[in-house]
Please model this.
Amino acid sequence: MRSYEGARVVPPCGRDGRILYTGVFDREGALLPMAATWRRDALITLAPDWPETAGARLAGQWLWGGVLYHHFGHFQMQSLARLWAMRRYRDEIAGVVFVTPGQAELLPFARDYLRLLIGDVPVRVLTDVTDVERLVVPGQGFGLGKIASGTRVFRRFVAAEFAREIAAEGPQDLFVSRSRQPLDKGGFVGEELLDARMAVAGYTVFWPEAHGLQEQIARYKAARRIVALDGSALHLVAMVARGEQKAAVILRRERVASRSLRRHMAAFMGAKPLTINALRDGSEVSFGKKRAISALDFEVIGRLLKRHGFIKRSLDWGPLTQAELDVISADHSA
Model:
């Protein structure tokens, strides 16, 4: 981590898939490698051309936040990665600066999330080439890939600062559902059948998108057992849950796709989640990006949940019945 006297921040000026052409230069025009963003083992921010002039100036000392993502999961994994430096510089900076490939303001969830993490520290999203009087550039302490475990200083920062005033409130058994997600968000058509099974097993079915961030956190802190299909909501679970809580992740994608999520959960909660791979071989996407819920082997799910103490062994839980399969056909034949 280093503070630079004079830095030129160049917002994204082009992209190639996940790759953004954006960067930070020192006052001599040298690119600052530490300001770049990594995704797994590859850089996803590449150097733009050096701009001869800046369109804006920012006085004072600011903390480099990196790229602001508007997707809930990527925001957590990549946009928070440098804020660990706040504990050292909070009283010495005017605020945090980000760049973004999307709309140039914080979405409501991001605004609320940052307030719970860094309080009332000002946040600026730069939309023009900007000369910053002094810029603190921390290393990337979190992200996708091996670093999904987070550096020790990042984990300690989150544990000490994030949502510390939100009290646990809610049921002990929580099933985090994705059944209300649209067809282009992946997962399964007919997930309400899994919701129903978990409700019969004694779990409260919880749809995160129907609740504010503070209520989500209160529920995740309170639950002793959390079961969910893999997805962005579990990144928030990992941020606030601890090792005495048990979590089970039912895969909706190949294992490699959720590896960073499971690393995040294991490192921050202090215990590995139970991973349930009940995907049937050869299941195909049929609706948007979704497959039918029959792509999951329900018998496998029930057996593993029973074995690891998430549901009672006496519970009647077998494969999907014909009546359940008929529900899927009836709902989506029109």
